[in-house]
What we know:
This protein is α/β, with parallel strands linked by helices.
Amino acid sequence: xxxxxxxxxxxxxxxxxxxxxxxxxxxxxxxxxxxxxxxxxxxxxxxxxxxxxxxxxxxxxxxxxxxxxxxxxxxxxxxxxxxxxxxxxxxxxxxxxxxxxxxxxxxxxxxxxxxxxxxxxxxxxxxxxxxxxxxxxxxxxxxxxxxxxxxxxxxxxxxxxxxxxxxxxxxxxxxxxxxxxxxxxxxxxxxxxxxxxxxxxxxxxxxxxxxxxxxxxxxxxxxxxxxxxxxxxxxxxxxxxxxxxxxxxxxxxxxxxxxxxxxxxxxxxxxxxxxxxxxxxxxxxxxxxxxxxxxxxxxxxx
Length: 302
């Protein structure tokens, strides 16, 4: 650890210290040992109130409202949106993105925005918090559900007081089912991007299918999504973004994150954001050029 990391570590809760240790440890055997400690910790965890839990974990909140630039764009549609950001892929030692491709994992948005700025400064504040949130979700989903339900109720009331509409995205950087919550709040609009071909939308749960790679099995899933009436989201190189949006049946998904408001087009175009491994995402053909996009659309339409 450098001096900044040591100073930060001195202020960490027990579970956050384990998260930082896991993040910085390079030896697989030692990382596994840390996960065993984490599992023991959460098995013994006693949930009393949300406030006491967050204090013990060292968190300000579990899910945040309008907590990214993209989600905040929903304000222009008069929406407040609550989003849960976990530690994507296998970054916390448990896979929360089961259908993600190599390119998706390498160029994941978990390493974009404020988190990218922190990485460049040698900090891990966001990473550590997301790891802790992921561990809570994986090892004590019962508690995670209870906390989420509390925060959803509170955020919805706040939106109503401000005269705004309200929505929830529980997979900001993950791809997990939360049907207990969707069913508990039938009047709230939930939405997600997913690569899971078995994920089923509900009347209050909108799904956008996400591109991962162009192999035969995945193309079959894209065809299935289109047949269901779902749009497919494609990450496109920034220099090809404008032209890609002009292709037949294509439209921009960058105006807001509120996918349940989309009304036209089968193929949504997302401008690839700078992450820790953007170039690897391009190399793995997860972040597409306009010509690669055309080829994949042809496969879907065939």
